[in-house]
Amino acid sequence: MTFKTTRLRDAITFALVASVTTLAGTSVAFAQDADTQESEATTLDRIEVTGSRIKRAAIEGALPITVIDRAEIEASGDISVADFLRGTSFNSFGSFRPQSGSSAQSFAGISLRGLGEARTLVLIDGRRAPVAPTTGQGQDLNIIPMAAVERVEILLDGASSVYGSDAIGGVINIITRSDYEGAEITLGRSFPVREGGDTEEGNALMGFSTDRGHLLASISYENRDIIFQRDRDYSAGGFSVFSNNFWSRNQLAFSALVGPVPGGCQDPGFTDIGFLCGYDFTALAADEAAIGNRSLVTSGAYDINNDWTFYGRGVVSRVKSFGRYAPVPSSPWPGGLIPISPDSPNHPNNAVPGWTGQTDTIYLTHRFAALGPRDAHIDSNLYDLNLGFEGRVGGVDLDFGVRRNEYQTYDFGLNYVVAAIAGDFIERGLYNIYDPDGNDPDVLRQFTATISRRSSTKLEEVYGSAGFDLFEMGGGLAAAVVGAEYRKEDYADIYDSLSEAGQIVGSAGNSAGGGRSVRAVYGEVLLPVFDNFEVNLSARHDSYSDYGSDTSPKISLRYQPLDTLTFRGSYGQGFRAPTLDLVTQQPAFGAAGTTHGPTCEVLGGGAPCSTQVTTFSIANPGLSSEKSDQWALGTAWDATDWLNMSLDYYNISIEEQIAFIGINTVVGCLEGTIDACPSGLSRFPAGTRANAPDASLGLGVEFGSQGEIVFGQIGSTNLGTIDTYGFDFNARTRFDLGAWGNLRQQLQISNPLSFRVNGGPSTVGREGSPRYRGVLQNAWSMGDWEFAWNLNYIHGTQSTKYREFVVASRTDDQETIDDLAAEGLSDTLPSWVTHDLQLSYNAPWNAKVTLGVTNVADKDPVIDPRDPTGRGFNFGLYDGYGRVPYFRYTQRF
């Protein structure tokens, strides 16, 4: 957001400004004394509000914008932007956060309307935040330091006509601190009552200003410690068949199980239950990855003369993350399971005295526990510089500048397995599967690998806009903005050579990389038709060098029949361009699971079964953009001087959604058992497997002579629709309690009513998609004391894992279902309510002391007994921190 002081030609009074800007949906309030309110029209600040390029005095416009100021951010007790935004009610169905066991463990995003991180645009001071290299799409909130944030503006409406791609779900505009004078130092620590998750924070802020400009610098750090699965009751105690078991066929089906490897299930972490050997992967693995941020943010502006200002902002930020996974399982193993021929010293017929079982080739699922856990170290660095000029020529306001940012990530993984070497050692008996821990360390080192991945995104941008008045209308002067942007985007995601060759076990993925240029022109017109009715028209045309162009129009209306009542509505079209990771990915090997009948018959054992087949994930250069239609209606009511409210309805429809389709969908489409199918799928000619992968063939499958899957190529394509609609409600109160101080309250509730994919049933109310999410903030201040009490609410959902269990068990007997419910396998998961408390004291020595507790009741996340991840709960929706007391001290100078 940028500021420019001019004299409003239409002479808006301060009283009108105060009445329209205190409406709900914004946390901006003007407190003016009576003398100021009654004064004549004077010079006011025109400001640019998220969702519009036109500067104006009235903040409450035709779009639903929520502004969260620094005081509200500090009262949350969160130490990072990611933690804070993830806890807002607008993050309807949760979002990705740093999790151990993921290749994107350093990433944290936000998903407005439940539409995903890739459809939510994050801005920093009105410009696009860098795309996360580890995901190739979506902006990483971990790279933005909390200490540098002045406020957050959330636009809950599509904004492709202003900002272009990615703004389908909405826009998060993070405004950094700029006009600050003085110096302060803040230090903070937290002390969770449960093991792990400790936090620490610190920042130094210094700023000064003159009559010609200002300069600010902020240095900060934020750390959160790792949380291991063994340290939470709900996630401790896992059981995996990738331990040390023999199988009669190259598939994972209990009908093919021979039994545990004799004597090979005795090491720590292994459990022999007679017919099966299991491994407790939670003994060493972590849930929450350790995450830390170090950053330097500088910003400033200098008035060259009365008409022109030079401005700049620079960010250097470093994120370090550490994750720990269980030791390598033999999955995905090239070809399925590990084969052991009858000639191998490791074949039980040769190694187990008195063996009476299978004498032909036998198959092994194994855990290479002797190598130790897999450790992932991710080091990310951001360099972002924006320089520009703002000025006025005649009656035209100009803003133009250049920007360059580069986000680099280095990922190192320890204790992985090279499949070709390990498989050869097992076949030759050099690695003893019957005594894994007893193997010679020199033997282990020969097939142990350290893997690496270097990723980066780079953006170079030139932009310019011109704003000017048009003509007089019934409600004042019409205004317009026109602008243009040009940017170059580069993406690289480079894996080590062994990973590229598909020889690394315990990890998957392959390199990708490419670049594009984007040219855009846009225009916006504000038409104040009457004093109480205005129309805003905007349109944008984006041209991409690699796939084509898109045009995004929008119209929004604002009607204010009373000073205290506003009605608003909007309709717009948007788009999301295919991201570079999807159109440049190199083929990546996988062993996808399938229950395909003919494949089960050929592999032996017959259907039904669950087996693995060779697949390659490939790029799809033919992807086109998603298209969206969205409209919204809302009202904001300034009911009294202590109460204001707003209610907004949204409706979003996305066509040609970009979706990943797996082997079962590809096969079902080719065999005609699935109706909703993309174009371009094909049956590969016989013998294609010999030259696989072959990206030129696109997505498809080679079938064998008996209809079995020989191999498949899978990936992303344009397929189907997403339709969602719902309500957002905001209420804000302010009470002057006289000698007892002031009380402020804000209630925010998001209520998605429907979320349907490809015309299917709504997922709202099912697991991971709560019908309501709300936050109630209470802040009481008296003298030097401040007290905050925040309530966070996530509505209960159905447990779809329970339903899947019932279906998979072919159980429709009500008595059996009732028995399952009595054992805790309920059809309904409860709601989640947590309370956060904070007490602050503004000390006479120019300091602030803060004590607080988040999750006062030490409430567990909502546990789903059928959760398949081993964590026990929805990791994107809830957290497992438990009760966390914290301390923060700020000294001002």
* CATH class type of the domain at 6-12 and 14-34 and 38-43 and 45-229 and 289-323 and 378-412 and 453-578 and 626-657 and 721-796 and 831-892: Mainly Beta
What CATH architecture of the domain at 6-12 and 14-34 and 38-43 and 45-229 and 289-323 and 378-412 and 453-578 and 626-657 and 721-796 and 831-892 do you see? Beta Barrel
Helix amount: 10-25%
The low-confidence parts are: 1-45, 805-813
Number of helices: 14
User: Biggest sheet, open or closed, and with what strands and sense?
Assistant: 22 strands, antiparallel, barrel
The radius of gyration computed from the alpha-carbon positions, rounded to a whole number of angstroms, is 30 Å
Query: Which band does the percent of strand residues land in?
Result: over 45%
What does this protein look like?
The strands form eight sheets. The chain has a 22-stranded antiparallel β-barrel. Strands 30, 31, 34, 35, 36 and 37 form a six-stranded mixed sheet that branches. A five-stranded mixed sheet has the order 3-6-7-4-5. The protein is mainly β and 893 residues long. It has a domain at 6-12 and 14-34 and 38-43 and 45-229 and 289-323 and 378-412 and 453-578 and 626-657 and 721-796 and 831-892: Beta Barrel (Maltoporin, Chain A). Mean pLDDT is 86; it is low at 1-45 and 805-813. It is built from 14 helices and 46 strands. The chain is globular. It starts with a strand and ends with a strand. The protein is 10% helix and 47% strand.
